[in-house]
Amino acid sequence: xxxxxxxxxxxxxxxxxxxxxxxxxxxxxxxxxxxxxxxxxxxxxxxxxxxxxxxxxxxxxxxxxxxxxxxxxxxxxxxxxxxxxxxxxxxxxxxxxxxxxxxxxxxxxxxxxxxxxxxxxxxxxxxxxxxxxxxxxxxxxxxxxxxxxxxxxxxxxxxxxxxxxxxxxxxxxxxxxxxxxxxxxxxxxxxxxxxxxxxxxxxxxxxxxxxxxxxxxxxxxxxxxxxxxxxxxxxxxxxxxxxxxxxxxxxxxxxxxxxxxxxxxxxxxxxxxxxxxxxxxxxxxxxxxxxxxxxxxxxxxxxxxxxxxxxxxxxxxxxxxxxxxxxxxxxxxxxxxxxxxxxxxxxxxxxxxxxxxxxxxxxxxxxxxxxxxxxxxxxxxxxxxxxxxxxxxxxxxxxxxxxxxxxxxxxxxxxxxxxxxxxxxxxxxxxxxxxxxxxxxxx
Length: 443
Description:
The chain is of the alpha+beta class. The chain is 30% helix and 12% strand. It is globular.
């Protein structure tokens, strides 16, 4: 995120981060052309809507001396303080203000991410546009009568548009071997982490508050040994429930960097990336076909075999992650230290039996019903029809055990049945055949 790491760049910011200096890729160049035109397109994300409210006088951001506009921005974007996580690796453009003593704080909900640094010049923000995916902004921490969110002109994309983000503007959580200064030992390697990552490779350069039994992670510790940076004292960083023993927590909105919030952050950022990739790939494929169809005098809606394969590939990629394929199994009970778990579960959309895709398991796997809650997002529901219909068909086949791929072998019969029932009860955009076939079975 830096740059946003997720964290950073806000997201970068957010996601934290831990985004190192990656060169731009050909993928980034292509999405600045038609039909995406990322840099020139006018976003319609939560931050854009918030700025409109500010400009019209409908909403006023409140500035305070301790946190600037942070509290007011979080309230306006409906982001809870309980989502706070802390990252101390120097993977943000505000790196000079970040260290193990002064970590960057990240906050998020389903579609927006906010990063704050003590005495920082700006607040970093990223939010999701249904067509563009991640859009990055900064907000000056100088008091103003008309504060302005300034859209990033490409600096964030140095980290947040690479192979680590599915080659689209997106998010990543990075784990590094950090020094006490927060500077990563770059020669020791880094890890981009999500729900598929081994526990022991996660959260280097982050603070982590929570309990996790015999499982070990890289958080809460650092080493200044340049010869053997990999020798982190992971035992010292394990099962930490009071971060005040490691840093001064008073400047932050809460004293936590909740373990469960970190796990959700990892999943969510990559899920956003895969939805964006499916959107971009499909639109680019159809745009290419539209040009060739005119030249070859084919029907306007003709879809070439090459485009069919491109769309099928990103649909497979999205559905696999949606159902938590290759999720790294938990070997012990996970517990956080804040109210994040209660807050997050309470925000879930409930079915007739009171079940939600945001219900946690935290003993063997992250969620009780392994289907990403971002299936409800505007971004997901706004996918181009050509890929959307394939995604819903694949989901249907998986949940009805017609898809035999090993990628979905982790889903038990009860998992599939519960997810199917939850989606039928709660999802507003399911294809008609989902309901029709349900009626047939009930007969």
